[in-house]
What does this fold into?
Amino acid sequence: MLRIATVVGARPQFVKAAAVSRELANRKDIHETVIHTGQHYDYEMSEIFFRELNLRVPDYELGIGGGTQGEQTGRMTEAVERVLLGQAFDLVLVYGDTNSTLAGALAAAKLHIPVAHVEAGLRSFNRKMPEEINRVVTDHLSSLLFAPTTTAVDNLKREGIEGVSVKLVGDVMYDVALRVGDQSERAASIVKRLDIQSDFVLATIHRAENTDTHSRLRTIIVALEQIAGELPVVFPMHPRTTAAVAAAGIDLDSVNGLLVIEPLGYLDMISLEQSAAAIVTDSGGVQKEAFFFETPCVTVRQETEWVELVECGWNRLSPPDDAETLAASVIAAARSDLPLERPRLYGDGNAAELIACALVENAN
It folds into this structure.
């Protein structure tokens, strides 16, 4: 029996784990223990994802949210280590690029437990991003690396990581998107509930680089105000962004056409992604979901780890250097004709199955 400890903590990881954990549960030769760090801990950011994606209740809830980067990562590492010491695990499975990812990998590596990293090999090449540090360190601590794209495989090879430890499996988020399928009825319901009268832009902003610098945050808000002069903007507000807006003294109530709402569950969020005329985001996951659902996307960053989306024309980069430029880019995306076909970038929708098979093969 292969004993796996899965470490999750943030909403993108819940989506990815939903696909893989379902495959693991179908196998009699695998026993999975789920450890939830608590990085995202309130209902809208955590519990609703478990409910909508049919994830079972975590075996351990560590309740570690908030704090500085170092403080949060340190507390998580300590708490995960305690769980790992209490049982004989064969492998620790981590996802993505959050502090929970790094904490799980560090705790396991220090205890000489092999680490498997889902979504390995992504690189933005911007070391100022905490997520980039988390990705690089986790990859170099891992024994098994599950890469979503050929670009990710090439990135790992350039860093000296190649061979049997690297598996090109596709993207588990694509697995979930295919399983969820058409959300047109739910989309009509939430659009009606929000009283959106016409084509709209969906905005999601949460990364530290955009929220923790007041000048960048103000530029983004001014751009959203300008966009709202042309098209309604729906803005589900991440808790980090809510706190940053308050700290910067920004008044969103005075912005006409900007609808600020609480964070959404997975199904409501993808329903809006499917319905939007365009998406403006700094989220890696939302960039991909926009592509899955054929919605134009503008990424509010200087670079992206999902470079293939920019290269094929389904995503465009627009860093928040100038509000007018950013607003014009989003409005143009909303009114553009995107490529008629989408290249097959993220596998065949069976990434989770390939991961489960590889985990068993590696253990034998």
